[in-house]
Amino acid sequence: MADEFQLRCYSYLDRMQPQYAAFVGTITQGDLPTEGMASLYIEMAPGNEAFRMVDIAVKATEARPGAQLVEREFGMFEVHSRSQAEVLEAGRVVLARLGLQIRDRVKPEIASVQVITNVDPYQAQLLNRFRRGSMLVPGETMLVMEVAPAAYINFATNEAEKGANIKILHVSSVGRFGRMWLSGSEAEILTARSAAVTAIEALEGRSGR
Predict the structure, then answer these.
(1) Which phi and psi angles does 126 have, rounded to 5°?
(2) CATH of the domain at 24
(3) What's the pTM value of the predicted model, to 2 decimals?
(4) Contact partners, residue 105, CB within 8 Å, separation at least 6
(5) How far is CA 15 from CA 28, 62, 83, in A?
(6) Any idea what DSSP says for residue 133?
(7) Contact assessment for residue 90 and residue 57, using Cβ atoms and an 8 Å cutoff
(8) Which end of the chain, N or C, is less surrounded by CB atoms within 10 Å?
(9) What is the number of domains present in the chain?
């Protein structure tokens, strides 16, 4: 590959959680995933490489594409399957074609984490106009988390749902930063924060700076 190529994100989700899968179903323009499927997100630069990598992944395996987004700087795609082996094979084939390994991905960094307790009714109304998931109820506690590269936020969200009884309000995984909004009781949100932070910090990779 050209010297300027960058594997920004390689993020494997072993089992999509119920809310997370449902949320993805509201925004995806490709094959719809369902709870329990394995999923793989790959983000790269330059973005146009995503077209070729999706083609390679779906021709070589039974994994199905749910997303393929190409911007000026970055490209990202997602594939999923009931079979974890098929998703892992899709990742292996793509990495082999690129001449890379998982450790060549950019290690994610947490850009910000905010916990907002006892959300005001007016702020809840404002936020509800932009969310694509559950409604934010006044008085709940809200977690806002940002990571870079952006596609890693999907892994953080799925792991947060594994670890706590929360609601997914919104997830955005395109651009320079990925962002998630979660809500619930203060105790559950703190547990979700811990799960998400631990999951992101445990991922290995190289510095993207």
Answers:
(1) -65, -45
(2) 3.30.70.1710
(3) 0.94
(4) 7, 8, 9, 10, 205, 206
(5) 18, 17, 10
(6) S
(7) yes
(8) C
(9) 2
